[in-house]
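[Discussion] Sanity-checking designs against the backbone

I'm trying to build intuition for which residues belong where. Below is a structure token string of 186 positions. I'd appreciate it if someone posts a full sequence so I can compare it with mine line by line.
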């Protein structure tokens, strides 16, 4: 059985309450989750204390604790994983910021995936606020940014996860980047 089919079946088992499914799932998705986490960590400030393995573990625990999610597919799982990784990073940045009592919060570099947004090192908490605002205006645009930037998904993979055309994803991606540039330059 192909890994994607096997993963989808295990996710369905998890939805039905089979707690042993979580232990069967991890070996199938760990490498991809770790790669996703490593990409996200590389965008962080150089002195970032969170390691990719710790990020994977925390995101995975949050993912399998999602009792209300009806996992549709492997792609759906990784879409939610991208959101969980973002949340873990933002939580970590907030804790770091609070520990420094007003010090610099976590920074991410947006030049690679987002195109130059003025200041390439953006405060992660500010980016999270921007994504929240973008989501209130157009939820799909927020999801496109999350999947492309935090999830590292291609245009085609993003289109598949969101159930839209690649042309729609490209347009949303351009619009969302322009909106974020303006928001972050304020």
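Best answer:
Here's mine. Compare freely.
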């Amino acid at each position: 059985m192909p890994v994607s089919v096997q993963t989808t079946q295990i996710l369905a088992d998890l939805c039905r309450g089979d707690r042993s499914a979580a232990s069967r799932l991890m070996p199938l998705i760990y490498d991809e989750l770790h790669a996703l986490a490593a990409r996200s960590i590389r965008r962080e400030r150089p002195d970032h204390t969170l390691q990719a393995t710790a990020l994977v573990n925390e995101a995975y625990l949050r993912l399998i604790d999602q009792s209300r999610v009806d996992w549709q597919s492997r792609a759906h799982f990784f879409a939610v994983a991208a959101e969980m990784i973002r949340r873990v990073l933002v939580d970590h940045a907030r804790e770091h910021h609070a520990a420094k009592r007003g010090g610099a919060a976590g920074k991410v570099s947006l030049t690679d995936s987002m195109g130059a947004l003025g200041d390439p090192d953006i405060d992660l908490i500010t980016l999270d606020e921007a994504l929240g605002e973008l989501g209130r205006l157009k939820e799909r645009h927020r999801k496109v940014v999350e999947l492309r930037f935090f999830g590292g998904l291609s245009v085609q993979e993003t289109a598949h996860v969101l159930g839209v055309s690649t042309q729609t994803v490209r347009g949303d991606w351009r619009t969302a980047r322009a909106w974020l540039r303006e928001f972050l330059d304020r």
